[in-house]
User: Fold this.
Amino acid sequence: MPAATENRAIRLALLGYGKMGKMLAQLAPERGCEVCAILEIDRNADGAAITRENFKDIDVAVDFTVPGAVVENVRRLAALGVNIVVGTTGWNDHLAEVRAIIEKTGAGMVYAPNFSIGVQLFYRIARAAAEQFSRFPHYAPYVIEAHHQAKKDAPSGTALELKRQVQPFFGSREIPVSSVRAGFIPGAHELGFDSEADTLIVRHTARSRRGFAEGALLAARWVAGKQGLFTFADVLELSKEG
Ligand SMILES: NC(=O)c1ccc[n+]([C@@H]2O[C@H](COP(=O)([O-])OP(=O)(O)OC[C@H]3O[C@@H](n4cnc5c(N)ncnc54)[C@H](OP(=O)(O)O)[C@@H]3O)[C@@H](O)[C@H]2O)c1
Assistant:
């Protein structure tokens, strides 16, 4: 893997050139990244384009593809010693397999179902709210998420992560999660607490895909030259510590 330096742009390969891939390509030059390769599905079915030749000058590959492509992409990239940012959602059942690949190869990877900084803060606020409401069992917790009609997975990875973060406060009381797929919604998530008397809602609404792309590029610069499996929360925490 070429050593990444703070003085030059990080050389990226984009896996997937859909809505997120295009947003990343647009923002990359302003964020210290150079897009050196774009692998679309027509070139990269089953990871076929992930070869030593194609990746010889790449610091980090950024995957915004489809759930079924992620494990094979990670396996091939890690075998080449290329570090990875995965924004694709819907592959969480394979996390143990991905972790084993990263540990065995010594590659570096950051993954997150949501690369928005606002969502990371939303998780913190959600945990604080859940802690308060869990003391009053007549409040029923719930999660609702809404996305554009082309989104392939439901519930969203962000909704599942939100549930994972707050469920421990409610023990065996299952928190229901509901999904809406309609129109062009970039992403909205809400955690509600409902009682006979009132409702409290904590909501995050993405205005565009720009926030996700900003976060993914931050993660790409951060993971260049590192080893291990990290979440976006790690990137934000460890960046703060320098
Ligand atoms: N983490 C975050 O912050 C965040 C934010 C937004 C979206 N997402 C997630 O990111 C993923 C992509 O979102 P999107 O809105 O960009 O979707 P999209 O517009 O459908 O783009 C995905 C693209 O990847 C292509 N693709 C599929 N398999 C591939 C492969 N093996 N190699 C290269 N390209 C491949 C798809 O081609 P075909 O259409 O031909 O299959 C499509 O063009 C989804 O899982 C979404 O949930 C995450």
